[in-house]
Every structure is written in structure tokens, then in C-alpha cells.
Amino acid sequence: MNLFIVFISTVFLHRVLFSSSVLNLCELVALRPDLARLKKVLYFHENQLVYPVRKDQERDFQYGYNQVLSCLVSDAVVFNSRFNMESFLSSIGSFMKKIPDHRPKDLDRLIHPKCVVLNYPVQFPDVSREHDKNPELFFNTLIKLKEKQLDFQLSVLGETFTDVPEIFSSAQQLLQSSILNWGFLPSKDQYLKVLCDADVVVSTSKHEFFGVALLEAVHCGCFPLCPKALVYPEIFPDQYLYSTPEQLCKRLQELCRRPDLARRHVDTSLYSWTSLKPQFQALLSAEGT
Length: 289
Fold this sequence. Notes:
Mean pLDDT: 84
CATH superfamily of the largest domain: Glycogen Phosphorylase B
Order of helices and strands: EHEHEHHEHEHEHEHEHEHH
CATH architecture of the largest domain: 3-Layer(aba) Sandwich
Largest sheet: 4 strands, parallel
Oligomer: single chain
Strand order of the largest sheet: 1-2-3-4
Number of helices: 11
CATH class of the largest domain: Alpha Beta
Distance between the termini: 49 Å
């Protein structure tokens, strides 16, 4: 009787490692050298080199340093907007000067050839209130409209955290007669219904790497008013942008008097998964690595 010996081997079939920029990819590859042969794709939805903090001393150097190192070991570095990419690359030099000695140079030149912009597909997550969204400008503008006795209705959506800017409570009192919705909505369907019922969505952000929440609102039929800065000029034509608080107030006055103008909407189909799927598939192809 013959002896049959069977050898069972597990075949490693993965070809691409797709990771967020919040992951320390350099550390992961060092701990798992078997992953080094994969095509390593790093996706930036934000970058820590220019992420806003109230004081520069509060910026955690390690977070930004990890992102730079991750770029160096990756095969492709993907950003959700050109603004995100350019602000990151242009800040590497000054950021690395914070190292006391042995400062590496020209890292931006090493990373740039790997970089590509691939927008994030439109989804519908919850929104939140943060200091970098500049609520003071938003509410002060609406208070001016109220003082001019212009007619409007207001929905302010998002979770309430422990550190809420004071302007929220004072504005809620001053604008009470115009408020339709205020605060967190318990279901996604309710959130989307408010967006679909609204005419105008306003951004007063001090920073934005892509602006998913705003695109979601526009996708639901809202007319956007955004700063002529950051990522917004990449996404929206000039008629949806303002440069100063005075321009924002003027545009809102015009829309209050002529609400029919808010029925003209920008096309967001370019940011749908249907449109972006082929680009993601091409990016995640392991060919050429």
C-alpha cells in the first residue's frame, strides 16, 4: 500500500494594501515585512501639516511626521482634492524644520511623483459642529439679515459636543422665530429630508479638504454659498463663491428677496461612485508595481 502525503499551503493572494493617511504605514510595513511587496496606496482625506488648531503650539508633530514617513514608503499617494495635495506638499519643508537636527531635505520632491488627486464619492454621514467651521461668521450674517427684516427659515444640524462656541446659544435666541430645526437629528432619513426641503446651504469654514457634507446638501437640491478659498473653487463655479463676509451677506439678501434664484443647482454627478469607480479600480490595480 502506497503512502500518500499531502502538503497544504496557504497562498497569499492580496496584491494591494489600501490605507488611510491616519495609519502609520511606515511602522506597519516594518512590523509586517511580508506586506512590503504589495502595492501600497495611501489615501489622504485630510493632512496634519495644515489641519487647523487654535494655537500652533497645540499641533502634534508626530501625527504630521507619521504622514510624511508613510508617503515615503507608499507606492501611490492619493488626495481627495488638489487643495489637500498642494497644501501638504508645500508645507513639508517648513514642517521638517521643527526637527532639532539632521533635517531631511527635498522630501516633497520625492513624494510628489507618487501623488494623484481622486475625489471622494458622495455619501451622507452625520455632520458636526467644530470651531474650524467658523460659526461666528455664519450666525452674525443671519442676524444682520434678521435686522433688515428679511424673511428666511433656518436649520442648524449636527451633534452638540462639550466645547460648543458661545455664538450658538446667543444666535439660537436671536433667530428663534426663524428656526425650523436645531441640533442633532436621530435618523439619516430625517437629516436628508431637511436637506431636500432646504433651498440654500452655507459654508463659512476656515478649512476644508473636500467638503462632503456640502456636496451632500447640493446633491439634495440646495444652492451652495462657499468661501472662494480652500477646496471650494475646485468643486463649485464662481457664482457659488464669495470672498468676504460682506459678499456673503449680499448674496443671502439677494436669495431672500429672490428665492427663485436658489432653484439653480450645480451638477454633483462627477462626485458619485458611478463616476469615480473606474478611477478607483485603475488606482487599485496592482499592475506596474
